Amino acid sequence: MKLSTKISALTPSPTVALNSRANELRSSGINVLNFAVGEPDFPTPEEITCRAIQALNAGKTKYGPAGGGLPFRQAICRKLLEENKMEYRPEQIVCGIGAKEILFHVMLSILNEGDEVLLPAPCWVSYKEHIKAAGAIPIIIPPNDDGRASITPKTLEKYSTPKTTAIIICSPSNPTGSILSTEELENLGQYLKTKNWWIVSDEIYEYLSFDQKHESIAKVTPELKEKTILVNGMSKGFAMTGWRVGYCAAPESVAKLVKRLQSHSSTCIPPFIEEAATWAIDQGASLMKHEVEKMDQRRKLALSCIDKIPNLSYLKPEGAFYLFIDVKKALAASKEFSATDSLGFCEYLLDKFHVAVVPGEAFDAPGFFRLSYAVSDETIIEGAKRISAAIDALTT
Fold first, then answer.
1. What number of other Cβ atoms are within 10 A of residue 155's Cβ?
2. Could you give the angle at which helices 377-395 and 342-353 cross, rounded to 10 degrees?
3. Which of 32, 111, 172, 260 has the maximal Cβ count within 10 Å?
4. Are the beta carbons of 327 and 388 closer than 8 angstroms?
5. What gap in Å lies between CA 349 and CA 337, rounded to an integer?
6. pLDDT digits over 128-141, tens only?
7. Is 333 helix (H, G, I), strand (E, B) or coil?
8. How does pLDDT run across 321-377, given as a tens digit for each residue?
9. Rounded to whole angstroms, how far apart are CA atoms 236 and 255?
């Protein structure tokens, strides 16, 4: 009996695996500090939850429309116009079970066998697997020495071929927290205007922008709008990870195919969830203003704690809720690991010091690890102490 070679070639999500391993250790009574999961620790705002309960009590428990109901898609259009200064029609919006599902269905809709997709590293763990599942080839662009993705016209020209079909960008970035500035987006936009490529812009961390304002490439370079597929959702900016609400805004030709896939997979967002999400997206960034300010305070605390640990450095995050920490110097000074074996280091950190972080190998950037500071202040402080002890044990 045969199995799919495409799906067999996919690798399990390392972030999900690490979170599971950390939870297993916790269940055995070990005090594990988990910095691996990409999830705000804030509860969903009570007002959102109340609207879902009201919708349940009103009997909104049947199937909803594939790709999202009209009121929700209209609310997304209002949000994109008011906050992002981009005009879309409801026919260009498709909603699904989280931004991850939407991204997967976008890849299936725009890629064909043997197509190549430019993927600047470090990059989120699932992009590569989505591309492979669609029969296409991810072309990994190595990061700069400091860990930041290299997304310049010169770099893209070096890695592109006649088979290049698309590029994926993520700003604010998972895992680095870096944000593409307006100038960077302008330079990138001028270059991409000359290419017949799809631009998949993952903007899920939009509201978690601290040092500079998030902007969409299709707004900075309007000529790219008919090539750009904007992907966003409610998980990060509204603390709604478990609700699974994502959407894309795309040229109608793409939206039609994504919606067609939705109709044959998950079909719809549960209507009671969609009603709560519609209310939330109309409130916009103001709904989580206090929580975002708190996350910025945690960012500063995490930076101050890591600054005290010798042989570690990092790319200062401008958004999201991650630190992408360079551990190569510490590993080079150790006798146990090679300078780029961040996977071995992260296993050592979990097993010996009970701290869960994600190795850079998961993001195609060995020699780094990702730490989420979407945890309590006490956890950040204690975690930094344990990481410092782990580095000391390796280098002394």
1. 16
2. 110
3. 172
4. no
5. 12
6. 999 999 999 999 99
7. coil
8. 999 999 999 999 988 888 889 999 999 999 999 999 999 999 999 999 999 999 999
9. 23
